[in-house]
Amino acid sequence: MRLRRVLTTTLLALACAGAAQAQPGAVERLHQGNRTSENVPSLPAQLIEDLNRYQNTRGASFAGWTRDGCVLVSTRFAETAQAHRVCAPLGMREQLTFYPEPVNSLTVAPGAADGFVFGKDVGGNEFWQLHWFDLATRQTRLLTDGKSRNQAPLFAHDGKQLAYSSTLRNGRDTDVWVTDFPNGKARTVVTEGGQWSAQDFSPDGKQLLVLKYVSASESYPGLVDLASGKLTLFPVDGGKASISDFRFSRDGRAVYYVSDEIVGGKPQEFRTLRRHEPASGKFDVLSAKIPWDVDQIELSDDGARLLYVSNEDGIGKLHVLSLPGHEEIALPELPVGAIGRAAFSPDGKRVALSINSSTSPSDVYVIDLEPRRLTRWTRSEVGGLDSSKFVAPTLVRYPTFDKVDGKPRTIPAFYYRPAGGPRKIAMPVVIQIHGGPEAQSQPTFNPTAQFLANELGVAVLVPNVRGSAGYGRTYLGLDNAEKREDSVKDIGALLDWIGKQPELDASRVGVYGGSYGGYMVLASLMHYSDRIRAGVDVVGISDFSTFLNNTESYRRDLRRAEYGDERIPAMKAVFDRISPLKNAGKIRSPLFVAQGKNDPRVPYTEAEQIVKAVRANGQPVWFLMFDDEGHGFHKKANSDYFGAAMMQFWRQHLIAPESKVGQD
């Protein structure tokens, strides 16, 4: 496609042909296809070739069992992730959907219907439409209106009803809708305002468990009588709690759920698996002996077994219980990693699940419960690389600025250390910060970290600063509202820790993050530009006030619950004080900002305004935007180009010059 050049200022001569950029104040804006860039240099062919194998790794995620005993998986063989079917261990992956946009929310129908529901948007705008894929005819049918935002499809146990969440009513609130499947007309069953989702149909299909999500620490469960439309909210012990994964027992007498509500008058740090019988009042905490969060639960169709996954210091642990006694069933040893979706086969005798480890992309495994046998069903490619040479991170904990019980609080971080023996040259470091902020970095396969470590000799540190999920209710709330910059101080403490490691070069540290992690990059540069050499901000927040004003209306109150309300003068003052945009003059390190034009969460204006402000202070900024992406880059060609540009940025602004081990 013809390359169109738009000069926004007088174009100066480039310093050198291969890896130069325009001087501050002279910006060359290039449009090529769906890509817009400023100051991003030509990318060396050798770098692209070296990266190619890492960028051709792929994973497979379990999405459900089909009625013929096959598994439905999501994986990418071209540009985007699509639905595939696998019918035998390590068998052929049969691709079922072929769209230029990725598909998500794959949900297999139980009962007589033979097929699955999937979601798809346009250009990353997240206005997903739900579709039905009929496995018998291979025909696809649109289920939603084509305009609103639709997600979280859920079938009744007999497959005759489908519930989902939608913004159709007013574009702002996410209501719960139910349709008689496959040909009924959808109707609203929850219109209370806020963000609602369906959790489980009763065994007879007459009732629906629902949940209102306010924030990572606040949600409210309820029950809808589908005939009358009456919504009954359940009491929340302590008034406020994080609650999820509501499920009916198969006899309909009890509910299982995950919660951090108070127990016996005592606050609970972690989300535990619980069972409650409304009629008798009987209540049990089933995972009380595990001092970590429970992430998901599922019941077998026959009601004989229940599974749940605990998140133990970032590692997923699968548990299966026999019912009704809740005795633990012994399982084969599983690969160490993060566990994705897990579910029983229709006959209840097997469990399929996704496992993603630090040295292997996500793959699907099946456990036969009676012979206690683990079988791998997919083997995802690693670009022809020798996986034995992938770097497995170690978990480190470093002290930060405040104390707990008189001792320094410690922050967990995963440390990817390049292989090799003692070094004469101290290693440069990239700190990778997750988004959310109510998310958690886990030791999953990270091709970016592997390339940095194996090919460029860069150490990678992936911290879970305060505000991260997985470490208890108190830790989750340590960065809320006016305490926002305390999480930035945790990055400052990590810089202190790096300075005490002889093998790491404290003079060559970069920061990288996306979404809220992008804000953390900008805020870290704002406070520590004298200690951070360069930063990469992907779809990041540059000012909380402008972000909250411009994010999509269906998300605004959801984000105010976490960050604070910009309409309150005191909170607005906090936002102004901590805003990277309003403190752009403090950012004195080279910056690379990347963005999707259709991002509904963090609008592209957040990127454009910080680029302009930092450049106004004479600092070099690379800028990259894709017209067909939203919150992150989900098309392979776009992701590959960004990855190569980022590696060139690190090579140019971080890796050279070198320092000797132990040198200050």
UniProtKB/TrEMBL annotation:
Pfam families: PD40, Peptidase_S9. SUPFAM superfamilies: alpha/beta-Hydrolases, DPP6 N-terminal domain-like. The keyword Signal applies. InterPro entries: 6-blade_b-propeller_TolB-like, AB_hydrolase_fold, Peptidase_S9_cat, Peptidase_S9A, WD40. Residues 444-654 form the Peptidase S9 prolyl oligopeptidase catalytic domain. The keyword Transcription regulation does not apply. Residues 1-22 form the signal peptide. Keywords: Hydrolase, Protease, Serine protease, Signal. It comes from the Bacteria. This is Prolyl oligopeptidase family serine peptidase.
